[in-house]
Amino acid sequence: MSPTTYVRLAPVCACARHLGGHLVPIPAPTQWLTSNGREHRQVRARMTKLWRQAGRVAVAAARLRGDLPVAPLDLVHVTAYIRWRDRRRRDPANWWPTVKAIADGMTDAGVWPDDDSGHVIGPDMRAGLVLPRDPYGPVGEVIVHIVPLGGES
């Protein structure tokens, strides 16, 4: 992981340094997908597509920085740190549709062969630290912590 990336992400999941693995930051490309969302199915499909593309683009950026290997990882544990821009109480598990779309994008990018239980343990959702308010910025970000448990496939 590059020093600049680690300095920016260190407060979010300081344990990543001790656990090893790879951190992939993903700024929110659109509104959050939640299990409580009541969007029309076409609107939800467009939002899912944007989150999936964001996961794929974030993997490409992480690989260019040298933060993520190019070869697919065979068995990994994935933790998603969800960072909002306010301090409201939330249940991070309700954000599984967002994290699932990101995991699908990472599968498309070839981080792992498939996002089934034979290759990916998790993803576990956690609340990250609050982001500073920015009226023109994204609604938040998701930082995906990938810990390889097996070899490369």
UniProtKB/TrEMBL annotation:
Entries under InterPro entries matching the protein: RusA-like_sf
SUPFAM superfamilies, sorted: Holliday junction resolvase RusA (SSF103084)
Protein's GO biological process: DNA recombination; DNA repair
MF terms in GO: magnesium ion binding
Name under which the protein is recorded: Holliday junction resolvase RusA-like endonuclease
Origin species: Glycomyces artemisiae
